[in-house]
Structures are given as structure tokens and as C-alpha cells.
Description:
Elements: H1 7-24, H2 26-45, H3 49-79, H4 85-118
Amino acid sequence: MKKNSPLWRRALFAGRGLWAAAREEASFRTELLAVAAGVMLLYWLRPPLIWWGVGILLMAAVLAAELLNSAVESLADLVSPEYHPLVARAKDCGAAAVLVLSIAAVLWVALLLWQRWCAGL
Ligand SMILES: Nc1ncnc2c1ncn2[C@@H]1O[C@H](COP(=O)(O)OP(=O)(O)OP(=O)(O)O)[C@@H](O)[C@H]1O
């Protein structure tokens, strides 16, 4: 496989990864819906810029973690389709990474709503 392809070609590979995840991973589709809800919440509440920055970072981090988790799962399934405790640990850790970031995102939404509620929305 040729290394160091031009930028447009690497962007095409990345787009293919995004499309594959959106088509085949129910969790990724759920997270895309959650991100859409988060963006709508930001538009509705119009908080200070810092909330937008933190929110965008968190939402991108959840999606990126899910994509990396899918990559780990695909490789694990290729290397060891049979049950193996190390595959279980790799997949469980990948899922845990997504969970940690998702909890942070939910806390961010709760803090945003609480802060706006205190300010009378
Ligand atoms: N080959 C395997 N060996 C050992 N355990 C496995 C194996 N495949 C799956 N598991 C266990 O089953 C869990 C779910 O794995 P699976 O590949 O079905 O992920 P998934 O449900 O598609 O996850 P996600 O929703 O994050 O995509 C893993 O976290 C792991 O504990």
C-alpha cells in the first residue's frame, strides 16, 4: 500500500471511514443524533462562546472515540474471531473510552441547563 498519499486522497479515506461507521455502527448513528441535539440546544440557549467551544470539543471527542473504538473492534474481529480474553479487554476498554466521554458530555449539558436556568433561561 502506497504511503503519504496526497491530502485529497487521505480526506477521501477519512470520508470512507465516516460513511462506513454511519452505515454499520448503530452507536455511531445514535451519537450523531445526540450531537445534532447538542447543536440545537446551543442554538436555542445561545450561551457565551466558551460553552460553544467546550461543547464542540466534547461532541467531536465522543465521535472520534467511537470511530477509534470501531477501528479496534474491526481489527480485533480480524485477528481473533473466536473468544479471547485479550480481545474482550481491548473491546471493553474501547467501549469504556466512549462511555467516559459520553458521561462528560451529559454533565456538560446538565451544567449548561443549570447555568441558564439560574440565569432565568
Ligand atoms: N472475540 C471476542 N473475544 C472476547 N470477547 C468478545 C469478543 N467479541 C466480543 N466480545 C465481548 O463482547 C462485547 C461486545 O462486543 P461487540 O464486538 O459485539 O461490540 P458492539 O456491541 O458492536 O460494541 P459497539 O456498540 O461499541 O460497537 C465486547 O466489549 C467484549 O466484551
